[in-house]
Amino acid sequence: MKTDQTIYLISNGDFRDSACVGCWPMQDATLKEVSKAFKKLGFKTEIMPKFDPKRKHGFLTKQCEGTAAFASIDPKAPVVVVLSCWAYSHHVSGPLQTHKGPILLLANFDGTWPGLVALLNHSATLDRLSVRHSRLWSDGFLKDPYFMQKLEEWTRTGKATHSTKHVSDSAGLKFSAGAKKFGEALAADILRQRRIMGQFDPGCMGMLNAVMDPAKLGAAGLPIEYLNQSDLVAEMDRVSDQEAQKHLDWLVKKGAWFDWGTNMYTQLVHGQVLAQMKMYSAAARIYKRFGLSALGIPYQCGLIRSVPASDLVEGMLNNADRPAVRDPESGAIVNAGKPIVHFNEGDIGAGIPQLLMNNIYELKGMPSETTLHDVRWGRTFEDKFVWVFLISGAAPPAHFGGWKKTSIYRQSPMYFPLGGGTCSGVSKPGVITWARAYEAYGDLCLECGTGNVIDLPADDLKDRLDRTTPVWPIANVHIPGYDRNELMATHMSNHITIGYGDILQELAVTAMKLGFKVRVAGDARKSLV
């Protein structure tokens, strides 16, 4: 790039103006830091869109606003999507598909203001759409030597490159004879019997990395049953108050703690949870009706204006120990004594590893609960980089140690106006397998590894929750060889799937036999060389 070129800084944001107003001060501060960094390198910048005093923010909030902004930019100009909070990637991913200039996704690295989460979503979305781009992140900007080095590289070459030594293609790894036999048998069963993935209204929150080609998935034995959120609401209306109250009574008897209040606009009230119990029954009924193997509820953008949050529902579904739901047609209990695999936010890239891991755990006689989490943040603890994995829903109480260690809080009014409870707790220490399925440049892929959930001191745990979202479930995870710069350089989503127990080899072989390109990340790959 020439120093007389203007570099455009694009502020992409949430769909919800309330979130954009709350996040604008951090975005404004981040834009100033980025502008200073480019100025030090000799480049001038222009911020788009401009701050709107009526809306009280300067974010793009719709795809049409993104297309309008890019229509005014030279198609060959260098652009930087600056991310300091959660943002919907499809606001800019469409325009970026036809943009010819260098593209950089740049985020802060902060737990309270999760630009890093948005960066991982945007990057995986662009890879899904076959759009070449670069990533960069920082918690210090001008004070961060790595950031400045890579920013200078991008201005000089149009690319910011990062080491990928921490990932290995599974084709070059050695798996045990037992894992090969196991994976081949499971993959053969999946291809013969199929596993139908039920996905409600895909594309939630701009996460196009959560949507995959149904032709490719069907060929892998994982056909999609596309479902409509309105049908979920209709099914909820068919669940009686008595059935819903019975589920709630079950949770109370099991020892779940509810943060009850009386103000429905700011606190958790009985009516919200009763609606969630109806959603729980409705989801189980639909799972049975369509013969599904997994189910994903997106919630945002559609259900958010119709019913309380799905998060408590998701945690219940993913747990083996849960209230019984009878199929009204057959009278049979749906998936008695087993989880109903649920992938939060309708993210099929989480649903696939959750399903495969669930199948493997069950066949091996291990606890079969799985969940996805956001890769929310992380920092060093006792010489180890410990990630904060955090998600609004889907985490099963089994991961916390049971219902007695589970708390249900009202979701934030800013994001969840109709309320509803979370399913919160602290994940217990232990070995985990983690994974992510994704589609990139036309291929179905899966990345996986192992790690450990760490039991942190109370003060450190509290600080991590306070810096992120304290009413959401948390897992504090150390993945050897997959620290901040490694994960941020190559992880293919804002989401990561985890389950307890080491089933890495079986998972990798199963996915390979289904036709996925598999890579193993972190130090786990070293034992397979």
Distance between the termini: 41 Å
Tell me about the biggest sheet? Answer: 6 strands, antiparallel, barrel
In round numbers, the mean pLDDT is 96
User: How would you sum up the global shape?
Assistant: globular
Q: Going across the major beta sheet, what is the strand order?
A: 11-12-16-15-14-17
Given as residue ranges, the uncertain stretches (5+ residues, pLDDT < 50) are none
CATH topology of the largest domain: L-fucose Isomerase, Chain A, domain 3
CATH architecture verdict of the largest domain: Alpha-Beta Barrel
Name the assembly state. Answer: single chain
Which strand-content bin applies to the residues?
15-25%
The number of distinct β-strands equals 18
Computed CA radius of gyration, to the nearest angstrom: 22 Å
What's the tally of helices?
Answer: 15
CATH superfamily of the largest domain: L-fucose/L-arabinose isomerase, C-terminal
Structure in words:
The chain is of the alpha/beta class and 529 residues long. The chain has two domains: 6-157, Rossmann fold (3-Layer(aba) Sandwich), CATH 3.40.50; 171-528, L-fucose Isomerase, Chain A, domain 3 (Alpha-Beta Barrel). It has 15 helices and 18 strands. Strands 11-12-16-15-14-17 form a six-stranded antiparallel β-barrel, surrounded by four helices. Strands 2-1-3-4-5 form a five-stranded parallel beta sheet. A three-stranded parallel beta sheet has the order 8-7-10. Strand 7 (197-200), helix 7 (214-219) and strand 8 form a beta-alpha-beta unit. Helix 2 runs parallel beside helix 3 and helix 6 (177-193) packs across helix 15 (504-513). It is globular and about 70 Å long.
